[in-house]
Amino acid sequence: xxxxxxxxxxxxxxxxxxxxxxxxxxxxxxxxxxxxxxxxxxxxxxxxxxxxxxxxxxxxxxxxxxxxxxxxxxxxxxxxxxxxxxxxxxxxxxxxxxxxxxxxxxxxxxxxxxxxxxxxxxxxxxxxxxxxxxxxxxxxxxxxxxxxxxxxxxxxxxxxxxxxxxxxxxxxxxxxxxxxxxxxxxxxxxxxxxxxxxxxxxxxxxxxxxxxxxxxxxxxxxxxxxxxxxxxxxxxxxxxxxxxxxxxxxxxxxxxxxxxxxxxxxxxxxxxxxxxxxxxxxxxxxxxxxxxxxxxxxxxxxxxxxxxxxxxxxxxxxxxxxxxxxxxxxxxxxxxxxxxxxxxxxxxxxxxxxxxxxxxxxxxxxxxxxxxxxxxxxxxxxxxxxxxxxxxxxxxxxxxxxxx
Length: 404
Description:
- By secondary structure, the chain is mostly helical.
- It has 15 helices and two strands.
- It has helices spanning 2-22, 55-66, 71-81, 104-117, 126-147, 150-161, 170-189, 196-199, 208-221, 230-233, 253-286, 289-294, 315-324, 339-370, 393-403, and strands spanning 380-381, 385-386.
- A two-stranded antiparallel sheet has the order 1-2.
- A hairpin with a 3-residue loop joins strand 1 and strand 2.
- Helix 1 packs parallel to helix 11 (253-286), helix 7 crosses helix 9 and helix 14 (339-370) packs antiparallel against helix 15.
- The longest helix is centred in the last third of the chain and has 34 residues, at 253-286.
- The radius of gyration is 24 Å and the shape is globular.
- It starts with a helix and ends with a helix.
- GO terms for molecular function: heme binding; indoleamine 2,3-dioxygenase activity; metal ion binding.
- Belongs to the indoleamine 2,3-dioxygenase family.
- Keywords: Iron, Membrane, Metal-binding, Transmembrane, Transmembrane helix.
- One of its GO terms (cellular component) is cytoplasm.
């Protein structure tokens, strides 16, 4: 499902953008951007000893070269330099021995607690689960209290806020962000698979070692969620060589491989999306922002009595509509059949075929996936949280499909 959902559309869209942009290469001129200080000069990529230069490294250098004269390139270049630790996907240093000493207990404690977190089969007995959750949290809290010096931790976070990366390297800060996010989730659920008893908890006080640093990390990374996000929990859980680091299910192999495969989706999306980001930077440099933002359709606008559509923040769908020939703003019908325009028309046809195939396959597979029995938990989705407790599994699956 991921190959279709994640890569085929991205690859097809990327090839169209490349052809589209190439057709304008003779007249390409980046307009002067507003004065910005986010990219004051070129910066070297972080390519460690033993690692070869990659195609993505070359893309990052090209984007950085545009940063002096184009605002979009400058902003993305700054994102890579700061949040990405001069790499993309963002670089996270999980080498435990290189972490500042005050932070090392976090990873040590997680590795000690992880084998106690997962179980091959969830219990349906609330009393058994209550005891398991209480024991896990008590041990976790005791280890944090004994081993973590919060004063020293906050001194390092002060250094990060001040941009003193010689004291607290950026790639180590990324990995620590990930470790704290994982530790908070482990403490919150206390058993995997997640059980109904934990789901029904409405409040939970986390240990100070997991709450006060997290508040600082949220502010530093601009993350408002108490649970973290895909970046903190998934993308940053890979080493620069793409090795999966923190784990939940040490065994059996079927569980651990499934866990890693799911997490790797989000990491690999960023690897494969960088050429798309590159194309977007060039596209925005080649065409005026006023034309792009002013003519992307009225569907997202609200009125006195009617709200805008719920998809008004998903610009990708608007772009796809334009390329697929949907809506008044589409240009597909005006394309010729020869030369570059013919190539664009052919690529558009391939995108349509893949989208139809994905939709057909996804509906069938989603029903099977969402109908899997999970008697230990209540129906829950990311967007709707807990659903009705009396909902039948089949009703739940179709309800979820209709929401997507």
